[in-house]
Design brief:
Blueprint lengths: L3 H11 L16 E3 L10 H6 L3 E9 L2 E4 L12 H15 L4 E7 L3 H11 L16 E7 L14 E5 L7 H4 L2 E7 L14 H16 L3 E5 L5 H9 L4 E4 L2 H8 L1
């Protein structure tokens, strides 16, 4: 069986000529709320705006998942349960809609995933798994397990991927999306034109990922109107931003 990573190398050679998948329409569902917990109104701002993916970085302290960008920023009241899990349960009970909670694990994945599974128990009726119609997707990013261990975790957990490790086809089915560092492909800051070479490389990567049936997001891309429009032109599926309201206005 050819690992997925090897297949992508082949796809990169042909994808500019044969794009087979593209985002048809960009809406708030296309938006990834980057570092959502840094907002004055975590979760609620993004959820009420209709954002498709909401991101929280987590650490494990004293048996609880804490939300913070760095360990120095941890505050005792800012738990994953208080900021995200309890609000999700409340809102999905009263206002159900599809939404993804992306958990960025900032420490060793073993203890963090074990505690996450415990804390998600109260949300199980709302979590998408095994082709059910539940609204909530749970995607793991950051310090995630290698693909060979995906089978060790509940089927309702899916994984973000950075194309660094090979997958079997079965393991690739547990991948929700691909997320790549835009700076690895271009130093463009959203001013002037994206250099032609950078555009060709980025387009080829997007098309290659689409050929595997997955959506793609770039992080650290220019978070401004020119950057958003270029990613839309290139047919990146998910737009990561710290500027939810401005982006929603731009794509209307």
């Amino acid at each position: 069986m050819v690992p997925i990573k090897s297949a992508l190398i082949i796809f990169l050679a042909i994808s500019c000529l044969h794009p087979v998948y593209s985002q048809q329409k960009y809406t708030p569902v296309s938006i990834h709320s980057h570092n959502d917990y840094s907002r004055p109104d975590p979760f609620y701002h993004a959820f009420k705006a209709g954002v498709g993916t909401i991101e929280a970085d987590v650490f494990l302290r004293n048996g609880k998942l804490m939300v913070a960008h760095d360990s120095a920023d941890i505050q005792p009241e800012r738990t994953l349960k208080a900021l995200y899990l309890d609000p999700l349960k409340k809102e999905l009970t009263n206002h159900p809609r599809p939404v993804i909670l992306m958990i960025d694990m900032k420490e060793a994945y073993g203890p963090l995933l074990s505690q996450l599974i415990n804390e998600l128990e109260a949300l199980k009726p709302f979590i998408k798994a095994d082709n059910n119609q539940a609204p909530l997707g749970i995607v793991i990013t950051g310090n995630r397990p290698p693909p060979s261990q995906y089978q060790d975790y509940p089927s309702y957990l899916s994984f973000d991927d950075d194309l660094q490790l090979p997958h079997t086809l079965q393991q690739w089915q547990r991948v929700a999306q691909v997320s790549l560092n835009f700076a690895n492909y271009s130093k463009w800051k959203g001013e002037g034109a994206l250099p032609l070479r950078d555009e060709k490389v980025t387009r080829a990567i997007i098309n290659a990922v689409h050929l595997t049936g997955k959506k793609i997001r770039f992080w650290a891309a220019p978070d401004n109107p020119a950057g958003w429009q270029k990613l839309i032109d290139l047919k990146a599926d998910i737009l990561s931003t710290d500027k939810i309201d401005e982006l929603i206005t731009a794509i209307k």
